[in-house]
Write a structure and sequence with these properties.
alpha+beta, ALP_N, ATPase_NBD, MreB-like_C, single chain, globular, 8 helices, 16 strands, ParM/StbA family protein, 339 residues
């Protein structure tokens, strides 16, 4: 029996949901890779506390999930991302983490609204994935065959995670009959799905996302502290520290970002809502006209309270459990149902 695995190779985190006969597993880690140089010499002054995990694919060796400098990632907005070697390697490493040697896999992943209707890209991506693969993990090969591949619009993963449980049982039958709007707020994109029952009517690009907010915070910090202009600070550096707090440390200095963060998050939430309103208006609808408006995605954790002034008078707003993992969970459920 094949294992069903949903993978959301997002711009910020890789999220994995696997469903087998024995157990359901969820996993996430930063979407970064560090190339392991086979010729470099390292000297540990003290014995390392933990051994790093090295993943090797066709001679390319990486560690994944680190923060810091000298890291690479497939994260970008171009459609070429989804058939790039980097994206394929990131996907295969995620699958190998949840797969046993010799196992068959039913895979489901997702793409944003901007690229959802590109059939050529989706076909090529499926062809690159649907075959035998080997990922060597710390010297031990994990070989698996992807028997079937499915590529969905990212918010459809959210829909699947809300309407069905991990066994494929329908738990929200009302959503299968009504007009539903799904707003999936990620790092690089906010993706929107207009659903009529279980039918996708329209996929929309919701405009700004969390990267936009953190670019504003970084610009604000550099305006207040000109010495930071010369520093190679990334928005992901900032997100890691500011996700649950207001202080950003760089070097040996701590910066208070509380006011800048409030302004940036408020601007971003407002921009997303206005873009979504314009998109649904083109379909002759408003946010109030939907039976359910579902907010999900990693960005929701940061922006939820900033959406409230725009949505607090509505009675149709819903948030799924584990909203950050919802897409991957839904992809995994879809793979299980189709497998």
């Amino acid at each position: 029996m094949a294992i069903a695995i949903g993978v959301d190779v997002a711009n910020s985190f890789v999220k994995i949901a696997s469903f087998s006969h024995n157990e359901d597993l969820l996993d996430s880690y930063p979407n970064t890779r560090r190339v392991v140089n086979p010729f470099e010499e390292k000297t540990d002054v003290l014995a390392p506390q933990t051994k790093e995990t090295i993943y090797e694919i066709d001679g390319r060796a990486y560690t994944v999930g680190e923060r810091g400098s000298n890291l690479i990632t497939s994260s970008m907005g171009d459609i070429e991302r989804y058939t790039s070697q980097g994206y394929i390697d990131e996907t295969l490493i995620a699958l190998a983490k949840h797969t046993k040697n010799g196992e068959d896999v039913i895979f489901c992943g997702g793409v944003p609204a901007l690229h959802n209707y590109n059939k050529e890209m989706k076909t090529k991506l499926k062809e690159l994935l649907t075959k035998r693969h080997t990922v060597i993990i710390n010297g031990y090969p994990v070989t698996f065959i992807i028997r079937k591949s499915y590529i969905l619009l990212q918010p459809l993963g959210v829909y699947m995670a809300v309407v069905y449980d991990s066994k494929g049982n329908m738990v929200q039958p009302d959503l299968a009959q009504e007009d539903t709007l799904i707003i999936d707020i990620g790092w690089g994109t906010t993706d929107v799905a207009i659903m009529r029952g279980s039918t996708l009517i329209r996929a929309l690009d919701g405009g700004k996302a969390m990267n936009f907010a953190y670019k504003q915070i970084l610009d604000g910090l550099r305006k207040l502290y000109p010495e930071l202009h010369a520093e190679k600070i990334t928005t992901l550096h900032m997100e890691e520290q500011l996700r649950h707090g207001d202080k950003f440390s760089w070097g040996n200095t701590e910066y208070d970002c509380s006011e800048i963060k409030k302004i940036a998050f408020d601007i971003t939430a407002g921009a997303i809502i206005e873009e979504v309103k314009r998109g649904v208006a083109d379909e002759g609808m408003t946010l109030r006209s939907f039976k359910s408006v579902i907010f999900a995605g990693g960005g929701l954790l940061s922006l939820s309270k900033y959406f409230k002034p725009y949505t607090e008078s509505f009675n149709n707003v819903k948030v799924p459990n584990n909203s950050q993992m919802a897409s991957a969970i839904g992809f995994g459920i879809y793979a299980k149902m189709k497998g």
